[in-house]
Design brief:
Structural class: alpha/beta
Radius of gyration: 21 Å
CATH architecture of the largest domain: 3-Layer(aba) Sandwich
Helix content: 40-55%
CATH superfamily of the largest domain: Vaccinia Virus protein VP39
Number of strands: 7
Number of helices: 14
CATH class of the largest domain: Alpha Beta
CATH topology of the largest domain: Rossmann fold
Oligomer: single chain
Largest sheet: 7 strands, mixed
Order of helices and strands: HEHEHEHEHHHHHHHHEHEHE
Shape: globular
Number of domains: 2
């Protein structure tokens, strides 16, 4: 199966980067290379570093850009981009793109274990390394599982689902996607089962985030990306659920904060100035046309900021 991914908010994201033909850019989540291709198409003398932790994505992007002198491809988590960029000879970038979350390819490849629609091993590892979702459900306590489901999935039935998992594994570990989906379905109230969407959606989201350490990697990746930007450079981030979006929104707000003197001070004495400014105050959501063409874009949000200076104390 080819690595296919439908980029969400595609034109808005590429336009927001304001790509310079001779600029240096980093696509921290290359996927199938859709965004990377659009950036490369606009470069005449610049460089694009495409990063992804998924070996399938790296194989696809390497094939796609083979022979392109503007393209560098590296396998890593985007949280490591500062190190990866430095090793590739890049110390500053004019733009960084992060498309957070699971890709269409990962969802649509049953053996990757991200989807509750087909039966497959309960994997969910984006990097295909480390502990799987099945490993977590086999080793964690009911309290720990419930905490994951509540924190990362905002699942109201977290405790009952966790108890059902622990009880089930007394006979047999929960090892496949449909086993888990059926357990969740049986553990939530009847009213929840009647609601639109699969009742296991939040549980699968929570486990995926836990398996991949997604929120920690996002926080680290944002800092790495911002540190690499030269003044005037742009950071564009696409998120797909409220937990991710909240982290991005708060981090960009912190970069955009200026003077922190008490409001009753007649003049500023702290000397702090904003390090960035927002391109879109509330972020961008998909329009109606995109929602019809790609229902998976429903929860997407694009936030973009421009770096003004390296330090809040710089002139």
């Amino acid at each position: 199966m080819d690595f296919q991914h439908i980029p969400v908010l595609f034109h808005e994201t590429i336009d927001s980067l304001q790509i310079k033909p001779d600029g240096v850019y980093i696509d921290g989540t290359a996927g199938g290379g859709g965004h990377s291709q659009a950036i490369l198409d606009r470069l005449t003398a610049g460089t694009l570093l495409s990063i992804d932790q998924d070996p399938d994505a790296i194989a696809a992007v390497t094939r796609r850009f083979e022979g392109n002198p503007r393209s560098l491809v590296r396998r890593a988590n985007f949280s490591e981009m500062a190190r990866v960029a430095r090793e590739a000879g890049i110390d500053r970038a004019d733009g960084v793109l992060l498309d957070i979350g699971v890709s269409s390819y990962q969802l649509d490849t049953p053996e990757r274990g991200f989807s509750y629609h087909t039966d497959a091993p309960l994997d969910m590892r984006m990097s295909q390394e480390g502990s799987t979702a099945a490993d977590l459900l086999r080793t964690l306590s009911a309290k720990e599982i419930a905490s994951i489901l509540s924190r990362y999935g905002e699942e109201k039935s977290a405790r009952s689902i966790a108890n059902a998992i622990v009880k089930a594994r007394e006979t047999k570990p929960v090892e496949t996607t449909l086993e888990l989906a059926e357990l969740v379905k049986a553990s939530v109230p009847a009213a929840v089962r009647r609601e639109p969407g699969h009742p296991a959606r939040k549980t699968f989201q929570a486990l995926r985030i836990a398996v991949n350490g997604e929120l920690d990697r996002l926080s680290e990746g944002l800092d790495a990306a911002f540190s690499l930007l030269r003044p005037g450079g742009r950071l564009a981030v696409i998120t797909f659920h409220s937990l991710e979006d909240r982290i991005v929104k708060q981090r960009m707000a912190a970069w955009c904060e200026g003077c922190t003197c008490p409001p009753d001070f007649p003049v500023c004495v702290c000397g702090k100035k904003p390090r960035a400014e927002l391109v879109y105050k509330k972020g961008l959501a998909p329009n109606e046309d995109e929602l019809r063409e790609n229902p998976r874009s429903r929860s997407a949000r694009l936030r973009v900021c421009v770096k003004l200076r390296d330090s809040a104390l710089d002139p």
